[in-house]
Amino acid sequence: MRSRHISRVIRAPRDRVYDVVLPSGTVVTNPLRVLAHPHGSEVVFTVRQIELTDEEFDRDCQTVAADLDRLAGLVDDRSRG
User: Fold this and answer.
1) CA-CA distance, 17 to 37, in Å (whole number)?
2) For the whole model, what pTM was predicted?
């Protein structure tokens, strides 16, 4: 999964976790972290491969990467004014 520089994060929680309920009922906790970076902040989201095939896991990683790209675009747009 690729990362993207984010120049600024507004009102981001210090530590946040997201619980995902799988079709089996298993709850998977995925942490989201916003880390200080010399030029702004870095957002890190952990994706876990629990009860997923390799193909399903790859698809989930692609979805998360797209979501993080959208987040970066929103933050970039807001920082421009």
Assistant:
1) 21
2) 0.66
